[in-house]
Amino acid sequence: MARIVMKFGGTSMAGIERIRHVANLVKREAERGNQVIVVVSAMAGETDRLIHLCREAASRYDTREYDVVVASGEQVTSGLLAITLQGMGLNARSYMGWQLPIRTTQAHASALIDGIDVDVLERVFDDDGIAVIPGFQGVAEDGSVATLGRGGSDTSAVAIAAAARADRCDIYTDVDGVYTTDPRIVPRARKIPIITYEEMLELASVGAKVLQTRSVGLAMRENIPLQVLSSFEDKPGTMVVADELIEDSAMERQLITGIAYDKNEARVTLTGLPDRPGAVAAIFAPLAEASINVDMIVQSVPRAGQKSDLTFTVPTESLVQTSDVLEKLKEEIGFEEILTDTEVVKVSAVGVGMRSNAGIAAQMFQALAGRGINILAITTSEIKVSVLIPEEYTELAVRVLHTAYGLDAETPE
Ligand code: ASP
Ligand code: MG
């Protein structure tokens, strides 16, 4: 017997017919003799609709009341699923965030989970019951409803799995797993059967948006195996697990697990910087203070007594603020000009196999050079190499790298 958290996303819960299908999947898992906790999202589009209503009511709204409104989407789907399961003869019951409770911080609309009491859940298991829990919501310190931020029900599911010491957390969604790259760009992209938390974090944060990144970080800290799978197709998905669990098959492992891309990057270049200690700190300290996330950084090394250039990237939505902050400090920092460019993309190759293999980066640069793609900036970590290139080459670069690292499937999946 295993204890499993099954989480269903918005498309899986969109309408009574789909909820009935979900109920069948839950029933099947329970009939295998497993203990099941179900966590659900609101119906697809519902949270957007509710947010829109808040905006219509008042352009500046109180986030405490916003949470009251948006948390209702998950309340509806959890009740409907419990009714459906009961109709199938199962001992199912819904429990709202405050009933367990799922305790959160006071930060309405972006609350963090402080802790989850599992007494209620244990009692449900003692009665061979199935608990259905709305994702995305909890109860803040003052007793008010709080939500976790968009996409938060993945995090709810993982947190509940950790608190209830589940053996696994299955995330049912509308894709059947995590792919080596975006299948819309590369039809020969392959489904990855098993991947480490670290790789998943890198792929998620660079644009493969299957799971809320925060939920993967939590699963890694709590060591909860995740499975991403489709609620529409009956086939195995992608397992996301600790590194040690796949170390054994390292021989068969690909050096590179996946290629990701992120168009949400803007390039900033400062020219004519003075060559003295503190010059770079004078730029990045005020950006950090303004909570601007700087990603890639490249500085040219000047000849003695000459000036240098510095290039870095920020999220596209932070570009205007970045220019404002730096323009105000122009004298102090001592640069000549700010040049910016939003027509750039970051393409990354990710894989834990990189740790023990040299030449991965060189292979990337060669493959891109072979197609005449100019590299504007580079960053590397232990398991990732990223390049910044002109956005118009996104598709070409992703395809070329997918082939260069031997990731293409023999036939399109
Ligand atoms: N319903 C919420 C949203 O759309 C939470 C979730 O589904 O993860 O953001
Ligand atoms: Mg989601």
Layout of strands and helices, then pairs:
Blueprint: E1 3-8, H1 16-31, E2 35-40, H2 46-57, H3 63-70, H4 72-87, E3 92-94, E4 102-104, E5 113-116, H5 119-126, E6 130-134, E7 137-139, E8 145-147, H6 153-163, E9 168-173, E10 194-196, H7 197-205, H8 213-222, E11 226-230, E12 238-241, H9 244-247, E13 258-273, H10 279-289, E14 297-299, E15 308-315, H11 319-328, H12 330-333, E16 337-350, H13 360-370, E17 377-381, E18 384-390, H14 394-404
Parallel strand pairs: 1-2, 1-9, 2-6, 3-6, 9-11, 10-12
Antiparallel strand pairs: 4-5, 7-8, 11-12, 13-15, 13-16, 14-15, 16-18, 17-18
Helix pairs in contact: 1-4, 6-8, 7-8, 13-14
The structure holds aspartic acid and magnesium ion.
Could you walk me through the main structural features you see in this protein, from its secondary elements to its overall organization?
This protein is an alpha/beta fold and about 425 residues long. The chain folds into two domains: about 5-175, Carbamate kinase; about 245-413, VC0802-like (2-Layer Sandwich). The protein is built from 14 helices and 18 strands. The chain has an eight-stranded mixed beta sheet, sandwiched between helices. β17 (about 375-380) and β18 (about 385-390) form a beta hairpin. α6 (about 155-165) runs parallel beside α8 (about 215-220) and α7 runs antiparallel to α8. It is globular, with a radius of gyration of 24 Å. The model has no long low-confidence stretch (mean pLDDT about 95). The protein binds aspartic acid and magnesium ion (MG). Aspartic acid binds near residues 10, 42, 73, 151 and 153.
